[in-house]
Amino acid sequence: MAASSDESPGIDDRTSGVREVKSAARTLELLELLASRQNRPARLRELTEALNVPRSSLYALLRTLTKHGWVRTDASGTMYGIGIRALLVGTSYLDTDPHLRIVKPVLDELGEKLDETFHFGRLDGFDVVYLATRESSQYLRPYSRVGRRLPAFCTALGKALLAERDGGELDRHVPAELVASTARTITDRGALDADLERTRERGHAVDVEENSLGLHCFGFALRYAPEGRPPRDAISCSVPMARLTPEREAEIVAAMREARERIERSAPPITEDSWEV
Fold first, then answer.
1. Which of 25, 58, 125, 221 would be 231's cystine partner, CB 3.0–4.6 Å?
2. Model confidence over 232-275: pLDDT tens digits?
3. What single string gives the DSSP state of each residue in 16-38?
4. What is the longest distance spanned by two Cα atoms in the chain?
């Protein structure tokens, strides 16, 4: 029996030679779109237009995913959001990450010592994904940042990791269009490259209101990847500019350098058969 159009092979994967399954790709695109909307549920029409798929096919997919808990809907059945099953899968990723178990206690110690906000993130495509956060008691966010993703080019976490790359490897993680998050965001590729060069010379990345107004952030790449493979993880510190002095900056940078060294000494080795991101 011939496969339906939803089950037919799709575009070749150039790295593995395995052909993409169209229905699986569509399901992933839908879940990622719903997750990216955070607390903004979507109507069927919005999802159909965003994904450019037939309304009837998408409705059937939403019904299936809702039944299995990957998508949730309101009482009227017309609004859709990410479901609880996505949380369970995401939590298992965190639970099994060997580096998170090393990094989180260090972030907690930094928080106790300096009472600023500290993050642990991982590079994923054009973005950096937050895997752990230790909030300051002086600057509390109304939500947890864990699981959120932000453009790498305008965050201290991301720029610390971009600075570890060059040529085509860097281009893979920088979008063609640099969309501003604030008025301070670097949106010119030449200016970004110059900023990354300063990051290499300095030894850590700096984000001055590029992602959030009022915040000055410091990012440090964690170099526990095998030789020849650029780092994928970084830690950062976010400080309200209103209380950042040159003395405080020096204290934070010194503490972050020491924390990076501790993490790199304690981190389990990444081998060729280790899990990829």
1. 221
2. 999 999 999 998 999 999 999 999 999 999 999 987 766 554 44
3. T-PEEEHHHHHHHHHHHHHHHTT
4. 72
